[in-house]
Amino acid sequence: MTKKMAFVGAGSMAESILSGILDSGFLAKEDILVTNKSDFERLEHLERQYQIQYVEDKQETVTDARIVLLAVKPYDMEAAIASIRDYLNTDQLLISVAAGVSTDTISEMLGREIPVIRAMPNTSAAAGESATAVTRGRLATEEHLHTALELFRTIGTATEVAEEDMHTVTAIAGSGPAYVYYLVEVMEEAAVAAGLGKQTAHELLIQTIAGAGEMLKSSGLDPAQLRKNITSPGGTTQAGLEALDEGEFQKAVISCVETARERSIELGKK
Ligand SMILES: NC(=O)C1=CN([C@@H]2O[C@H](COP(=O)(O)OP(=O)(O)OC[C@H]3O[C@@H](n4cnc5c(N)ncnc54)[C@H](O)[C@@H]3O)[C@@H](O)[C@H]2O)C=CC1
Ligand SMILES: O=C(O)[C@@H]1CCC=N1
Q1: Which of 33, 42, 53, 198, by CA, is between 20 and 30 Å from 237?
Q2: What is the pLDDT confidence band of residue 232, given thresholds at 50, 70 and 90?
Q3: Distance between CA atoms of 142 and 134, rounded to whole angstroms?
Q4: Considering just the CA atoms, what is the radius of gyration of the chain in Å?
Q5: Pyrroline-5-carboxylate reductase catalytic N-terminal domain: which residues (predicted)?
Q6: CA gap 88, 86 in Å, rounded
Q7: Are residue 150 and residue 181 in the same domain, yes or no?
Q8: What pLDDT is recorded for position 2?
């Protein structure tokens, strides 16, 4: 069977996934086709950057693909599906990365018996470091699940979750990198305000985040223990953490996750 993969939607998520897939060698550039609604500059950019093929014609894009990956905004899903529906066949696997939109809704939009997998990657896919969760629609078999896991494992980790958990996954892992970047932005601003050079602050923070991530991955210790190991009684970390508590850090983060989760639910209803 063909190895080809078609991307419908050529925005930042499609680019992160396809650049990760190409870096990993999972697919050759000749096996990747990309299409978009109307922003042909994006397609030209992807062609220049990754030497993949772009095709304006939807039929040509999806007909020969083994996997069709929908990477359009939730509110564009209906139109995007309508534009490819007639050219799909039941041997293909449709993967959606749209936030909020359930596999049942996608199947309804399709109105055809095509297997569907819903996935939630994040933009760290571009660096081969996405944390992706996938869930199966009612027509997707173990083999389809295996294919999706294999695909997303080329761009990081991939785990199966129950569909009802996808909203929470979206809140912590899909959106998650943005919260980490925001933290870095704010810490950098505070360091610069205290007189440290911007570049020095930037480099120290990148390594601090990467190092903390590596410790979470490899030390075998839970985050609370790792935090305690840094916090000398009466020291700087304790003082900093107390200031975070005074600023209701926990409340803000819990509200962040809950609000993002609720938004995912809302996006699925529209
Ligand atoms: N950006 C992120 O970090 C993540 C995004 N997602 C999901 O990925 C999806 C895409 O998000 P982004 O790439 O950030 O958005 P984006 O706005 O960068 O890209 C969406 C692309 O879809 C195209 N498009 C719109 N309607 C279309 C149609 N009818 N047919 C073909 N193409 C069409 C647009 O021209 C655009 O290039 C969203 O559903 C989002 O929920 C999921 C995980 C992470
Ligand atoms: O903000 C969004 O809606 C998308 C889904 C997860 C990350 N970005």
Answers
A1: 198
A2: very high
A3: 12
A4: 21
A5: 4-100
A6: 6
A7: no
A8: 67
pLDDT at 39: 83
- Give the DSSP letter string of 151-202: HHHTTEEEEE--GGGHHHHIIIIISHHHHHHHHHHHHHHHHHHTT--HHHHH
Ligand of minimum distance to the alpha carbon of 8: 1
Between CA 64 and CA 60 the distance in angstroms is 8
C-alpha torsion sign, points 252, 254, 260, 263:
negative
171: in domain: no
The predicted pLDDT at position 1 comes to: 54
Enter the pTM of the model.
0.95
Q: How far is the CA of 232 from the centre of ligand 2 (A)?
A: 38
CA 24 to ligand 1 centroid distance, Å: 22
73 ligand 1 Cβ < 6 A: yes
| 31, 135: one domain | yes
Whether residue 212 sits in one domain with residue 154: no
Q: Are residues 68 and 191 in the same domain?
A: no
Cα 25 to chain center, whole Å? Answer: 19
